Structures are given as C-alpha cells and as structure tokens.
Amino acid sequence: MTVKIWLLVLVVFAGGVIYMLMTKRSADDLELTAPEAQRLVVAGEVTLIDIRTPEEWRQTGVPRDAKLVNMVHPGGADGFVGEVLEQVGGDTAAPIALICRTGNRTTQVQRLLVARGFSQVYNVTEGMVGSSAGPGWLKRGLPIAPYE
Known about the structure:
44% of the residues lie in helices and 14% in strands. It is α/β, with parallel strands linked by helices. The protein has a single domain (3-145), classed as Rhodanese-like domain (Oxidized Rhodanese, domain 1), CATH 3.40.250. The strands form two sheets. The chain has a five-stranded parallel beta sheet. Helix 1 crosses helix 5. The N and C termini lie far apart (35 Å). The relative contact order is 0.20. Residues 3-28 have low confidence and may be disordered.
C-alpha cells in the first residue's frame, strides 16, 4: 500500500476510536443482528444501506426497504459519503445500519462514516450470507427484493 492509503486508513480508524471514546460507546454497542436491523427498518427507526456492488445485489437480491449505495463509488470516498448523506436527507445524526456480504466491509465503512461526522452508524455484522457473528440475512429468511 502507498503511504497515502495507509494514512487514510489510520485517520479513519483513529476517528472511529476517538468517536467511541467520546460517546462512551463500544463497537459492540454499534452492532446489530440481521433480525434487529429488520425490526428497526420496519419500525422506521433506522435506514438500512446495502453497500455491496450491483453484481452482488443481482446474485442474492437486496434486503427489502434497503437503500443501495455501492461502496466502490465512481466518486471515491467523497462520492460514497455524499450519496449516503443524500439517503438520510442530509442528517448526519440519522441512525444508519450498514450491511454487506459478511460484515467485513461494513466495519471499514462504519469507521469512515463516523470519521466524516455521522453519529449513529450501526453494523449488521453477520451480513447477507453469514459470518462468525450469525447466519446472515438470507439464511434467516428475512425479506429480500430482486435487484433489477
């Protein structure tokens, strides 16, 4: 990796750590299971954002009522953050739940969004297909919609 990329990773990570220390939140406080995320979406208490790629959306479908924001954004990190901001009406305090395939990418994106000023970014750590955190959205039989 280049020095610039390492510095970006360091800044994002440090920003997330500082935020959690300032708000006395641990990473576990910012994690959701797939059923918890679904319940909060249905209740209108969180915006679920699927950060996978269009190819992945086509393969599995997408969580019903999720907003789709490809983390591999043509506008880079700024473009991605801007699109997430649009999805929540410009409100960086709006609760957001991120989902990807297995919870790995959402961990990184969660740090990025916190470093950019978002204050309620939750991670669906089991993702769509499951991880050590749980069986995943699909195996739990939670509602999905096809991606056109």
